[in-house]
Write a structure and sequence with these properties.
Elements: H1 16-30, E1 37-42, H2 49-60, E2 65-70
Parallel strand pairs: 1-2
Helix pairs in contact: 1-2
């Protein structure tokens, strides 16, 4: 199995399309099938965290997602 990596940073308020685009672009950078993803978000995104997680998993095709929220 070939190792791969992709990453993105989003600044500002939550926007669904930006999350979808970032997940898809990171997946494309990877060029393979990721096995785990790491997500770091600010507390500002806490009200939408369920949606963020779903979007990242779906559009990044990430079966296991690990992350944290910080202020």
């Amino acid at each position: 199995m070939q190792a791969c990596a992709g990453s993105r940073i989003l600044l500002g308020p939550f926007e669904e399309q930006k999350v979808i685009d970032a997940a898809a672009e990171a997946l494309a950078d990877c060029g393979g099938q990721p096995t785990v993803g790491f997500l770091f978000v600010s507390a500002d995104w806490l009200p939408q965290i369920d949606e963020v997680l779903d979007l990242i998993r779906l559009h990044g095709r990430i079966p296991l997602l690990v992350g944290t929220i910080g202020a």
